[in-house]
Design brief:
alpha+beta, two-stranded antiparallel ribbon, Nucleoside Triphosphate Pyrophosphohydrolase, 3 helices
Length: 162
């Protein structure tokens, strides 16, 4: 769901490419399976997260966005990677184009979360599930890169376009 801030921006620029600072979380269960979400109406899976709002820190944003999507409070850990490449630009079904600047954080659910059968779908998220590294679902290129980095965090800055 788009916030009033981004709705107002879209009214001004329509579908023009927007630079969008965003956050997401890599959350693992005890088997080291990665938690991913499938948005309503989408076939591709992604990391829980979303856009940073005005007057919000990146740590507050990741905690809020992830909690809104998975309906569970999280503990935010260290920054794993930052992504800012035109190869990750996205055009959504409604025509809106974004150039995300994405901050990927390690995070955990302090009391744990069971399998997807415990999750109640929301207006935004249809499904959540843990995936082992060997059987990740279909994802956009940016999420494929984030998954590689979540399982094996980079030790240095890497330009994914090179």
């Amino acid at each position: 769901m788009m916030s009033p801030y981004y709705q107002a921006l879209r009214q001004q620029v329509e579908h023009t490419l927007l630079i969008c600072p965003s956050v997401c979380a890599a959350i693992f269960n005890e088997r080291r399976d990665l938690l991913l979400v499938r948005p309503q109406g989408a076939s591709l899976w992604e990391f829980p997260g979303g856009a940073i709002e005005p007057d919000e820190t990146i740590l507050t944003a990741v905690a809020r966005e992830v909690s809104e999507e998975i309906q569970v409070e999280i503990s935010v850990g260290r920054l794993l990677a930052v992504y800012s490449s035109p190869i990750f630009d996205t055009r959504y079904e409604n025509g809106d184009a974004v150039h995300p600047i994405m901050f990927l954080f390690a995070a955990r659910i302090p009391w744990g979360i069971g399998e997807s059968s415990e999750f109640i779908p929301t207006d935004e998220i249809a499904e959540l599930r843990y995936f082992p590294q060997t059987t990740l679902p279909a994802m956009r290129p940016c999420c494929q890169q984030k998954a590689r980095d979540a399982f094996d965090p980079p030790a240095e800055i890497i330009d994914p376009s090179s």
